[in-house]
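Ticket opened by: R.M.
Priority: normal
Category: complex prediction / small molecule

The reporter submitted a protein together with adenosine-5'-triphosphate and asked that the result be attached to this ticket for the collaborator who will pick it up next week. Submitted input follows.
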Amino acid sequence: MTTLLKVRGLKKYFGQGAQRRLVLDDVNFDLDAGERLGIVGRSGCGKSTLVKLITRLLDADDGVIVFEGKDITRASGDELRLTYRRMQMIFQSPDDSFNPRRTLGWSIGEPLRNWRVPNVEARVEELLTAVELPKAFASRYPHEVSGGQCQRAAIARAIALEPALLICDEATSALDVEVQAQVIELLKRLSVEKGIALMFITHDLALLPSIAKRMLVMHDGRIVESGAVDEVIERPRSDWTRELLAANIFSTGSFGNGN
Ligand SMILES: Nc1ncnc2c1ncn2[C@@H]1O[C@H](COP(=O)(O)OP(=O)(O)OP(=O)(O)O)[C@@H](O)[C@H]1O
Ligand SMILES: [Mg+2]
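Result attached by the on-call engineer:
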């Protein structure tokens, strides 16, 4: 397997002077092409900060990020534009993905127009079909569809340029359990069919068996455990993993089924 993403010694501080706090502390991991990796940890442990560093929304204070063989730690301008073609994100709230004044079809077609891809309308219809939405949804506005449908549209937009990596930061957290399971199933299918690698970030450990084979557990800005999802769930080595497991069994009474 080829390595798609390599993260080494990543550090991030927030705040100034006495307020300065280390929020990411020496984060290291690799992601293979097409691999689905779960990242779990309780609120505030640094998951979204890690995503923001990888997607270059924030600068790292130390460390290296290599994506498709290129050091993107300080990428900007055209280099960053090329990176964004290959690396896409889906956020918790569809509001973050869509302009409320544009139709879903317009927004899904935007990256295609930006990259001068021909036959945008036909391609948008194909993308809607790929995420199991009716073609007629192209003319709907974000407020005219449900949360799950809007998240499907966000996925359509994210895969429009056939990225190598899709980063989902709490992408299903705002959805109810049933719709959440459907969106996870869709993400998994698209990943398998198109060979897209996934980073699936969540505070909910119970979601991981249905989407990821391997997982990282974060606590206080560090990776405290990593391994195969089934093994980590069956034989957690870190107290922080045990705490996440306990929280889950308490809230749901069980875990999802394996891959
Ligand atoms: N721009 C910022 N300035 C200062 N502190 C920040 C900033 N962004 C995040 N933090 C702090 O950094 C820590 C990590 O935040 P982060 O958003 O990465 O957590 P998270 O794991 O994504 O949490 P959640 O599960 O709630 O989304 C938190 O303590 C947060 O308060
Ligand atoms: Mg977050």
